[in-house]
Design a protein that fits this description.
Blueprint lengths: L11 H11 L4 E5 L5 E5 H17 L7 E5 L4 H11 L4 E4 L6 H11 L3 E4 L4 H7 L8 E4 L15 E2 H6 L15 E6 L9 E5 H11 L12 E4 L11 H8 L2 E4 L6 H10 L4 E4 L1 H14 L8 E4 L6 H9 L3 E7 L6 E4 L11 H9 L9 E5 L14 E6 L21 E9 L5 E6 L4 E3 L2 E3 L1 H8 L5 E11 L3 E10 L7 H8 L11 E4 L13 H7 L6 H4 L1
Parallel strand pairs: 1-11, 3-4, 3-5, 4-8, 5-6, 6-7, 10-11, 10-12, 12-13, 13-14, 23-24
Antiparallel strand pairs: 1-2, 8-9, 14-15, 16-17, 17-18, 18-19, 20-21, 22-23
Helix pairs in contact: 1-2, 1-8, 2-3, 7-8, 9-10
The structure holds adenosine-5'-diphosphate.
């Protein structure tokens, strides 16, 4: 027997309709690419998104066509998202931090028809435009006064482009499983892979995010997503914030400590989300200038492991830290680390122990850990295995790739190695390709990195496995010191001594000026492995 409830397709434009109707006056504040701070609200944002939809429709963009955006977090960018999806086209966010050849590869693979971009990226696109045959025109997110001279095909200033229609338009009707958005994984190994979100998965993901123990901002809150819209959907905040009527503060192109601090402070932001590198810059700026953030309640941090010293810095300011883990393929939230009831009373180091784990899966994310043969491993907080996930906002396949990506039970292998404890808290111990295999036993590079960055002189640390004649691989610790600091190999190793098993101790320490990062802010281990491929460990010589 079927239920007798209404058929109400979960379409993303329903979110902005709701926000405009119920929270119409709630603001979206943007640090614009042109410079000034500009303000709009959900009512106006929806009206302009409808113009985008109408204008794309006039442009001949149809259901399933791909429209790329290469842009910072701004209200204009957000209007484009809703406008593109609202006619059943696919909003393809492109990460401008990738190499130009990779950007070209991705646009060609997606066969984008239109590219919507910020002033910042016009020169970059001009360099590769000749090799982008599918692109029919470029829309520059600015007005006539700021529109540059450009060789980009049929280029037009966004404000002029949407002024050509009256906004009297209705969203199109289609099935909730229609593709809404796409985002390529950064392809740290191999070609980038296209993740294709549906309207249904985006709407469900907004509910996952709006769970009080996940992102959980309310209509009374103000959220600043530092995490870019082109990085795994800005963790879904473009959907979850309007669904709640949360005020949004969009940082535009300026993500340095001083600029982010200024917005957090003047707009009295209560929730913010970003990767550890961003928080490192913010904390350094605050420490140097003896600043506080009395309104900030929650910092969500993910994308790579949040160092314990960083968690402590926020906790000491009375700010709640939620360590999150996820990936592009998961829309992206997989786990969030709010304190569950059994841990709520904890203080001091015990509390930090829990906060340092990556959190637990909210409803609609299922997880298991397995050994290499696929056998499930216990949730005892110690045993680590391959982390596999399942849920309605998790990829079942990649765009235009035939390979099967799910196991026989429908789980997706995340490529991460993790432990799970009895309350479902997950702790990443490694990427499966980064784990150090010493004499057949696994050493977690992330645990060693977390420990090393606790040293007061260390700015950032990376651990890679290097060849060892007896053990196959041994850990090499690569350190970037804080500006103006000096330290020796012995200083660092004696700091780590006693805090980990003896056989986990790095065999050597190498100091570098800067640790390289990927386009999504993760340590670029492939480049470090390359740089240190002939490294001779002192222990290997003995
Ligand atoms: P990429 O394409 O660069 O892998 P994603 O943003 O999809 O981009 O990255 C997902 C990966 O990032 C995860 O599989 C995991 O390895 C890593 N990651 C994300 N959050 C965390 C975290 N809190 N701690 C450790 N690693 C993390």
């Amino acid at each position: 027997m079927r239920g007798l409830m209404q058929d109400w397709p979960m379409l993303t434009h329903r979110i902005i309709d709701h926000a405009a109707r119920v929270h119409g006056d709630r603001e979206i504040v943007t640090r614009s690419v042109e410079g000034p701070i500009v303000r709009t609200n959900y009512r106006n944002l929806r009206a302009r998104a409808l113009r985008v939809a109408q204008r794309l429709d006039r442009e001949g963009i149809k259901l399933g066509d791909r429209v790329a955006t290469i842009a910072w977090n701004t209200a204009r960018h957000m209007e484009c998202w809703y406008g593109i999806m609202g006619i059943g086209a696919v909003c393809h966010t492109v990460n401008p931090r990738l190499f130009p050849e990779q950007i070209g590869w991705i646009i060609n693979h997606a066969q984008d028809r239109i590219v919507i971009t910020d002033l910042t990226f016009v020169p970059l696109l001009e360099k590769i435009a000749d090799n982008l045959p599918s692109v029919e025109r470029y829309i520059v997110l600015t007005d006539k006064a700021h529109m540059p001279q450009t060789t980009l095909k049929n280029a037009v200033a966004y404000e002029d482009w949407i002024a050509e229609v009256d906004g009297n338009f209705k969203w199109k009707e289609f099935d909730e499983n229609t593709a809404a958005a796409m985002c390529y994984t950064s392809g740290t190994t191999g070609d980038p892979k296209g993740v294709l979100y549906s309207h249904r998965s985006n709407v469900l993901h907004s509910l996952i995010a709006n769970n009080g123990d996940a992102l959980g901002a309310t209509s009374k809150d103000t959220m600043l997503p530092v995490v870019p819209l082109f990085h795994a959907n800005s963790w879904g905040i473009v959907f979850s914030a309007p669904a709640m009527g949360t005020k949004l503060v969009m940082p535009g192109p300026k993500l340095d400590g001083e600029s982010v601090y200024e917005l957090l402070s003047t707009e009295k932001v209560t929730y913010t989300a970003g990767v550890p590198t961003v928080w490192l810059m913010l904390l350094q700026h605050m420490e140097k200038n003896k600043l506080t953030l009395p309104d900030l309640k929650v910092v969500i941090c993910g994308g790579s492991a949040m160092p314990r010293s960083m968690i402590k810095a926020f906790v000491d300011m009375g700010i709640e830290v939620r360590h999150a883990w996820g990936m592009t393929e998961m829309s992206p939230l997989g786990t969030v680390g709010a304190l569950q009831a059994p841990y709520a009373h904890l203080t001091g180091e015990d509390k930090l122990d829990v906060l340092q784990m990556q959190g637990y899966p909210p409803f609609m994310v299922e997880m298991k850990i397995t050994d290499d043969a696929g056998k499930e491993l216990p949730w005892d907080g110690k045993t680590f295995g391959r982390l596999k996930v399942k849920g309605p906002a998790i990829s079942g396949a990649y765009y235009r790739v035939d390979t099967k990506i799910l196991d026989e039970d429908g789980y997706f292998d995340t490529g991460d190695v993790a432990t799970m404890n009895e309350h479902g808290y997950m702790r990443i111990t490694d990427r499966s390709k980064d784990v150090i295999k010493s004499g057949g036993e696994w050493i977690s590079s992330i645990d060693l990195e977390n420990l090393a960055v606790g040293h007061p002189k260390v700015a950032e640390a990376a651990v890679i496995g290097v060849y060892h004649p007896k053990w196959d691989e041994r850990p090499l610790l690569i350190v970037q010191l804080k500006e103006g600091e000096s330290a020796t190999r012995e200083d660092i190793l004696s700091y780590m001594d006693g805090k980990i098993a003896k056989w986990w101790m790095p065999d050597d320490v190498a100091f570098v000026k800067a640790i390289p990062h990927t386009a999504t802010g993760k340590i670029l281990k492939t480049s470090l492995r390359d740089q240190f491929k002939d490294y001779k460990l002192p222990s290997a010589a003995a």
